[in-house]
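Review form for a predicted model. The reviewer records the input and the model, then writes brief findings.
Reviewer: anonymous (R2)
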Amino acid sequence: MTAASLSVTPAAALSVTPAAARHVLERLRREKGRGLRVGVRGSGCSGYRYHLEAAQAPREGDEVFQSNGVTLIVDRESLLMLVGTEIDYVREGLNASLKFNNPNVTATCGCGQSFAVEQAPAADVAEEQGDGAAG
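Model under review:
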C-alpha cells in the first residue's frame, strides 16, 4: 500500500487524550501554532522516531484531523505508521511526557526513543479504487 492509496476515517486515524489535549493546546498557545504536526522520521536503533512541532497550516499532501479540540496535521507517509495511534500525556514520578500508544509498533529500542513497524496497518484502512490497473 502506498501513501497515495491510503484512505482513513478520522476516527481511525490519530487521537489525543484529554490530558494530552490540555498539554498540547498550552504548547500551541505559547508557540503561536494553529495545529500540531505529528510525523515519523527515520532515526534511532529501531528505525523510526516521532516528530512533533507547532504548525501554522497544513502542507500539500497533509491530512488534518481533530481530536479533543486539537488540530492534528500529518503527512501521508507518516500516517501509514500512525493509524490508530493515541497520544497521551503521562506523569511518571517527577517526569511528564507525551506517550504514543501506537498499535502498529512491532519493536522498540532499549532507550524507548525509537520504534519499528513491519508494514502499513490493515485495520480501518482501505485502498481507493484506482484505474483498474494491477499494482
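Findings: The chain has a mean pLDDT of 82.
Further findings: The two ends are 9 Å apart (CA to CA).
Recommendation: see findings above.
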